[in-house]
Amino acid sequence: MTHPVTVLGTEELRAAHDLFGGALFNGPVDDEGWEFRGASYAPGRTLGVHLDGTLAGTAMSFGTTTVVPGGAVLEAAAVTRVAVRADRTRRGVLSAMMRAQLDDVADRGEAVASLRATEARIYGRFGYGVATRGRSVRLRGSGAGWRPGAPASGSVRMLGPGEIIDVLSGLHERLALRRTGGITRSDGWWRAVVGRRLQAREPVIAAVHTGADGDDGYVVATPGARDGFTRPLHVEDLHAADAAATAALWRFVRDIDLVGDVEAHLRPLDEPLELLLADPRDCTVTGVADETWLRLVDVPTALAARTWAAADPVLLAVHDPFLERNAGVYRIADGTAERVGPLGGAVVPGLECDVAALAMAYLGDRTPSELAATGWWTCHDEKAPARADAAFATDVVPWCGTFF
Ligand SMILES: CC(C)(COP(=O)(O)OP(=O)(O)OC[C@H]1O[C@@H](n2cnc3c(N)ncnc32)[C@H](O)[C@@H]1OP(=O)(O)O)[C@@H](O)C(=O)NCCC(=O)NCCS
Q1: Is the Cβ atom of 90 under 6 angstroms away from ligand 1?
Q2: Which parts of the chain sit beneath pLDDT 70?
Q3: Is 246 helix (H, G, I), strand (E, B) or coil?
Q4: How far apart are CA 328 and CA 290, in angstroms?
Q5: What is the atom index within ligand 1 of the atom nearest the CA of 89?
Q6: Which residues constitute the domain of residue 339?
Q7: Which of 224, 258, 289 is the endpoint of a domain?
Q8: N or C: which end of the chain has fewer CB within 10 A?
Q9: SS3 of residue 147 by DSSP
Q10: 285 shares its domain with 308
């Protein structure tokens, strides 16, 4: 039996927020915190399940846009604040909310949904797959500095607290939409994530890089615990148009007086930090983790929206037990992709996969041949993986850079 899912009214949002906070071991939000976080709840997009008259689970989303290979920008849902009360778990509450949410997302015309997962075993069953990854890095504060010849162009200016959101929100939108996997942020996101910190007068270092064509990058960093007068810095947010602006912003934060090590999480896999340093070992990669969990909600639209490289035709059977309307055999050829038949019909596929495994290749994070070799995709024609690799190939490492 599936649980009834309702759209929560504004009067229930704070309880939903506290339920989510409690699931992450946070206490209830205070009035000031709610003033900022409440603004990030998009009207009509927070779902709840009540059991015995009490809110037992919640999941929300906000509308965003995302970039797919080739540069097209798709309407998308950003799914977040998903939680079930600890005394109501493992009885299908999340499953009911996921189903209702995906139907809602589809009704809104959003072809894909994405989320960040607390645990990697939760969302695959609902058709989400890891579509971008990021690496955690630490730059040694006492290192050998920058390599002679590493880019050092343009200028960097710091922003005052009153201008940070205005300047960075516009700049972020422009920069994020340049890269496959990038998403736009809502005003509520800026308010909940950055505005709250500024209101609490927490130390936030924000700076913009200006290159030959104007502002082309920014960084937001916060200091960690004091060690004497020295403090480590944590890079919270860094988006830049190119390697030169990236280099200038890393140089800026690393070279601030009294800064120890500089750390950042979920940075692009291809960020060239080691190539900028006199001693490449001053940059330690401390981890690689999943970033975007992507759900192709409308597979025909999503496949038609991205570009496909020149390749011999690929016939790919896609299974989607959770949203059966996506199932079928798709033909990728001549730069396009379209459904050409049902599963089990006359059209025989060379490759077969689940919709979650399709998401893993969709933005270019994984190749079809590595997915076939590891059992995520099934291969019926030994030539098919190489053809699919050619068709799915992109020249950009996908990355998002927004945590929500
Ligand atoms: C993760 C969470 C939302 C799951 O809610 P739930 O109502 O227990 O999920 P369901 O009962 O619908 O589970 C559906 C299936 O997923 C499995 N599942 C759910 N959570 C899982 C987890 N954390 N790890 C592994 N499997 C999980 C269930 O066992 C069940 O499998 P089955 O169909 O084979 O029996 C809940 O445990 C929770 O709130 N966790 C803490 C907060 C959190 O991590 N939220 C996610 C934010 S991204």
Answers
A1: yes
A2: none
A3: helix
A4: 28
A5: 8
A6: 298-392
A7: 289
A8: N
A9: coil
A10: no
Q: Which of 26, 81, 122, 293 to mutate to test the pocket of ligand 1 (most atoms within 8 A of CB)?
A: 122
Q: Is the CB of 84 under 6 A from ligand 1?
A: yes
pLDDT at 190: 95
Specify whether 220 is located in the same domain as 285.
yes
β-pairing verdict for 54-67 and 73-84? antiparallel
Check if 121 has its Cβ closer than 6 Å to any atom of ligand 1.
yes
**Same-domain status, 139 and 284:** yes
Per-position b or e across 302-334, b if 16+ CB within 10 A of its CB: bbbbbebeebeebbbbbbbebbeebbbbbbbbe
Ligand 1: nearest atom to the Cα of 123: 16
Residue pair 33/196 in contact (Cβ under 8 Å)? The answer is yes
- pLDDT value, residue 295: 98
Residue pair 123/117 in contact by the 8 Å Cβ criterion:
yes
Pocket test for ligand 1, best of 47, 94, 95 (most atoms within 8 A of CB): 94
Beta-bridge partners for 352 = 317, 378
CA–CA distance, 382 with 323 (Å, rounded to integer): 29
Q: Give the model confidence (pLDDT) of 41-95 as tens digits.
A: 999 999 999 999 999 999 999 999 999 999 999 999 999 999 999 999 999 999 9
What's the token pair of residue 374? 């590891």
- DSSP code, position 291: -
Q: In what order do the strands lie in the sheet with 73-84?
A: 6-7, 46-51, 54-67, 73-84, 112-115, 293-296, 128-130
Report the nearest atom of ligand 1 relative to the CA of 85.
Answer: 39
Q: What pLDDT score does 82 carry?
A: 98
pLDDT of residue 286: 98
Backbone torsions φ then ψ of 304, nearest 5 degrees = -75, -20
Given this model, what pLDDT does residue 1 score? 73
Q: How far is the CA of 135 from the centre of ligand 1 (A)?
A: 26
Instruction: Tell me the CATH number at 334.
Output: 3.30.1050.10
Q: Is the CB of 201 under 6 A from ligand 1?
A: no
Closest CA to 128 of 140, 116, 138: 116
Residue 246 lies in a domain: yes
What count of other Cβ atoms lies within 10 Å of the Cβ of residue 39?
17
CATH number at residue 104: 3.40.630.30
